[in-house]
Write a structure and sequence with these properties.
Length: 155
């Protein structure tokens, strides 16, 4: 009878005779902890953007987050191509969607883009392209676009 109960994944009839299993110790993966640490400033930047541009919420969701997501997607899918890791700050489309909003450029700088050549460009060096961070940043951007409560409950 006990063997049948075990096969079915049921607990023994008499719990007193059941063997107690040793507790499982979960170790934190240091790379995940490090990623969480890097993601928090990116999330905070997006929360700040959403709060400071509430009137422009549609613009924020469609233009800003869409453009930031496109930039990160291009870097993730073409990390060896410099044209996807370099943004001209004076580009009219970039200015309209990202550069003109306080915090838009800051998000890219928090990800790892750097100002270069007299601050005319934002550039992500190839050696600083981290796929885990790109994927997580893309998920946060997607959450910002799809979750109407993103950032509203934080201080």
């Amino acid at each position: 009878m006990e063997a049948e109960r075990r096969k079915l994944g049921l607990p023994p009839e008499n719990l007193a005779t059941a063997k107690t299993s040793s507790s499982v110790v979960w170790e934190k993966n240091p790379s995940v902890t490090n990623l969480d640490t890097k993601m928090e400033p990116l999330k905070e930047c997006l929360r700040s953007l959403r709060k400071s541009h509430k009137v422009l919420e549609v613009v924020l969701e469609e233009r800003l987050c869409g453009k930031l997501h496109a930039v990160l997607w291009n870097v993730a899918n073409h990390p060896d191509e410099e044209k996807f890791r370099k943004i001209r700050l004076s580009n009219p489309a970039f200015q309209e969607r990202v550069g003109s909003l306080t915090g838009g450029i800051e998000f890219l700088e928090l990800y790892g883009f750097e100002r270069t050549e007299g601050s005319e460009f934002l550039f992500s060096p190839r050696e600083k392209v981290k796929m885990e961070l790109l994927n997580s940043a893309g998920s946060v951007l997607n959450s910002t676009r799809t979750n109407p409560f993103f950032g509203l409950l934080s201080s």
